[in-house]
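Translate sequence into C-alpha cells.
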Amino acid sequence: MAVPKHRKSKAKKMSRRAANEKRFLGSLSICPQCGAERMPHRICPECGFYKDRVIKATKSQNEG
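Result follows.
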C-alpha cells in the first residue's frame, strides 16, 4: 500500500479543502414573505420568517 513520503504543509492542505468547498454553493430559494433570496430550509435573513412564522425579529419589526 502506498504511503506518503513527506508530510503535506498546512497551506497545501487548506488550499485543497478550500477548493473542494467552493465547488458547490447550493441553490437559493425565494422567501414567500418578502421575496428575498435565501438558502432553503433556513430563516430568511431579511424578514426573519420561516414556514409562515416569525423566528427572528428584525429591526423593522421591533419599531412598528
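Note: Residues 10 and 58 are 40 Å apart (CA to CA).
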